[in-house]
Design brief:
Length: 565
């Protein structure tokens, strides 16, 4: 009994022995012969041999192959101090290798297909929301500055390119937040390509392009891709010069726009860290220490005291919003409250604008598509309404004339053409009424309503009655007649139902022919929704960076510099 208790103690007290390994990996190992097993030795040699699978390592000692089964300690296997073990690397299983290659190829193909889908979806979204195409969704894509004001610049192609670039960049940021940096790099490359399609003079004073360069280099750093060190330095130079153009020297212009706040501090922490890392790997220790020291000072400014967060939380603000405001205002409580109030007002204003935009989009959908699959231009419609034309009639005139305001005005001021247009609208309204089961009485009621709107003047009259737009609708609306001549013409036309139906059928066939000649493009709805829903509209989101990883990296490289010194 005493001897059984003493043996484990003696084994634990035994000193580690050195054994030599040659072959697939050569070197010495300090092992405890009584505690280490053959599988443990095999796993350690596999790790040191480049991380290969342990079952590919073969161990030979004393002319025999060491087996894992039955499990035995190295001492039981006959190994002693200074024993020499031969390790060989077995060829991987051919079937496993082929399967692994096929899986890798399939994953790569799926990834490439997803990138193509991303590009096509972004292009389709931006095309529809730039050139006036018919919106299939209930939102609109607009460019805004940091104050929330709409931005319009350049040509339609420039606007489309910028929207695409920003949308793809936002998608890449989502990947970065999920630690999917390899996927983010591919999307960032597409965003950079989209920016290249825009006139450089139009985007040189905005910081979106330098932010893109910075995000690309950050992905290089996280992936430890030293092979891209040279191109990383070039990208950081572009980012630095881009920030100086957009933010001004020492961020003077940015401070002015942000009421003296330091919202961009986290951006410069990351920029100077990466500049220091590139300088360190290029052997420029002086530049590396200068950049890293400056980054560390800015990093310390972003460490928000818990007491300040507690004060703002006691006022009813959330912890995340309070911390962001304090970081951007240098812990100043009053400035933080002012910033939070501004952000709240922006959100309220944005909700109101979104509601108005959705109402406008729904109104556009009621008017239907033009022959070229465009929406009715609301600004031109407002212009025609402002000079006295009834809204529904003016919308139909714009729709059939591809939003050409001059042609629409000519049509509206021509009594004969005006009458034909009204008749076309009312005929479709009656067809919808018959289709809903209301019968001929509905048609007579519509005619009666129309007659009540007769006015002897040439100026259009707006009444409470509405008119369909010429496209399929669930409701039937009726347009008031503009003048007496039109009323008489309508009554004459109503006397000849057979001719009317033939003309209506021909009109329908013509409209169907237009749709077939210009079919709407096939949509990738899932990918479009994925892209659109990631657009936050938060002007300060790009500057709200969690710099905890940057802080660790700064400390790590400063320690390396101290060791080198």
């Amino acid at each position: 009994m005493a001897s059984d208790e003493a043996s484990p103690a003696a084994a634990a007290a035994a000193a580690a022995e050195r054994i030599r390994v040659v072959g697939a990996w050569a070197g010495s190992l300090e092992v405890e012969l009584g505690g280490w097993t053959v599988p443990m030795l095999r796993a350690e040699v596999a790790r040191r041999a480049g991380g290969v699978e342990p079952d590919r390592i073969n161990l030979i000692f004393g002319g025999r192959v060491l087996k894992d089964d039955p499990p035995a300690s190295l001492q039981q296997a006959g190994l002693k101090g200074n024993a020499k073990v031969l390790s060989t690397l077995l060829a991987p299983d051919r079937g496993k290798a082929i399967a692994a290659q096929a899986a890798a190829a399939a994953a790569e193909e799926e990834h490439n297909n997803r990138l193509v889908r991303l590009w096509n979806a972004a292009e389709a979204l931006c095309q529809r929301h730039t050139d006036g195409s018919f919106h299939e969704e209930d939102f609109n894509l607009d460019l805004e500055d940091q104050s929330g004001q709409k931005v319009m610049f350049g040509s339609v192609d420039d606007l489309k390119a910028v929207k695409m670039a920003l949308m793809l960049h936002q998608k890449a940021k989502t990947f970065i937040k999920r630690d999917m940096h390899k996927e983010a790099l591919d999307v960032l490359a597409m965003a950079e390509e989209a920016f290249s399609l825009c006139d450089p003079k139009l985007i040189e004073r905005v910081d979106n392009v330098p932010m893109l360069q910075l995000d690309i280099v950050w992905c290089y750093f996280v992936l430890r891709d030293v092979s891209r060190l040279e191109v990383a330095g070039t990208r950081l130079e572009r980012a630095r010069s881009g920030f100086e153009r957009s933010h001004g020297k020492d961020s003077a212009r940015f401070r002015l726009l942000q009421a003296g706040r330091h919202a961009d501090l986290a951006i410069y922490v990351r920029l100077e860290l990466l500049e220091g890392v590139v300088a360190y790997h290029n052997g420029n220790t002086v530049k590396a220490r200068e950049s890293l020291t400056s980054a560390q000072a800015k990093y310390m400014q972003l460490q928000v005291p818990d007491e300040a967060i507690s004060i703002l939380m006691s006022m009813g603000y959330g912890a995340r919003a309070a911390k962001r405001a304090l970081k951007m205002t240098g812990y100043d409580i009053q400035s933080s409250v002012d910033l939070l109030c501004e952000e709240r007002e922006k959100k309220i204003r944005r909700v109101q604008e979104d509601m108005e935009m959705q109402k406008e989009i729904m109104e556009q959908k009621k008017y239907g598509k033009t022959p070229m699959n465009k929406t009715v231009n609301m600004q031109k419609l407002k212009g025609l309404v402002a000079i006295g034309f009834e809204k529904k009639l003016a919308a139909e005139a714009l729709r059939i004339n591809e939003n050409d305001a001059d042609k629409a005005l000519d049509l509206l001021t021509d009594p004969e053409q005006n009458c034909i247009l009204q008749h076309k609208i009312m005929s479709k309204a009656k067809r919808l009424s018959r289709g809903s089961g209301s019968g001929s009485s509905s048609s007579r009621a519509a005619a009666a309503t129309t007659a009540s709107g007769v006015n002897n003047s040439q100026a259009p009259v707006d009444t409470s009655a509405n008119v369909p737009d010429g496209s399929a609708m669930e409701e039937s609306h009726v347009l008031p007649v503009i003048n007496e001549e039109a009323a008489n013409n309508v009554e004459a036309v109503n006397d000849d139902e057979t001719v009317n139906h033939e003309e209506e059928d021909m009109s329908e066939e013509s409209a169907e022919g237009e749709e077939e000649a210009n079919p709407p493009p096939v949509r990738d709805v899932a990918m479009e929704n994925e892209l659109a829903h990631e657009m936050t509209g938060d002007a300060l989101d790009d500057y709200d960076i969690d710099v905890s990883n940057e802080g660790q990296a700064i400390s790590e490289y400063l320690s390396l510099l101290d060791s080198a010194a």
